[in-house]
Amino acid sequence: MTIILEENIGLVPVDVTIEGGDPVFARFKTAMLPEHRESPHSYQDLARMVGLKPRGYLPRRTFSRNGLMWLAISCHSRPND
User: Fold this and answer.
1) 65: which of 35, 50, 72, 77 fits an S-S bond (Cβ 3.0–4.6 Å)?
2) Are 44 and 54 in contact (CB under 8 A)?
3) Are 65 and 35 in contact (CB under 8 A)?
């Protein structure tokens, strides 16, 4: 089965595999290749921006994009631990 998502980059087809009436796998067909780049902000600053203590975070901060740009911050544990 194929469904279509309306995203900022346009219409994105998604092939969904159904087994026994349940979806078990989905594959997106993007209109552009993913783009990745390092964040210009320190992980300490990023933790403060979202109201967390800057401990337990990995130094990797990556901006990624398949349409809208988003930021991923890696951490060792959940924020409330």
Assistant:
1) 35
2) yes
3) yes
CA 57 from centroid of its chain's CA atoms: 17
Strands 22-28 and 35-38, by their bridges, are unpaired
- Is 54 in contact with 48 (CB distance < 8 Å)? yes
User: How many residues belong to the chain?
Assistant: 81
- SS3 state at 49: helix
Residue labelled with tokens 């552009």: 32
- Domain map of the chain by residue range? 1-31, 32-81
DSSP state of 36: E
Going through 8-67 in order, the beta strands assigned E by DSSP cover 10-19, 22-28, 35-38, 57-65
Q: Residues 4-39: pLDDT tens digits?
A: 988 777 788 899 999 999 999 999 877 667 787 877
CA distance 41 to 24: 38
pTM for this prediction: 0.42
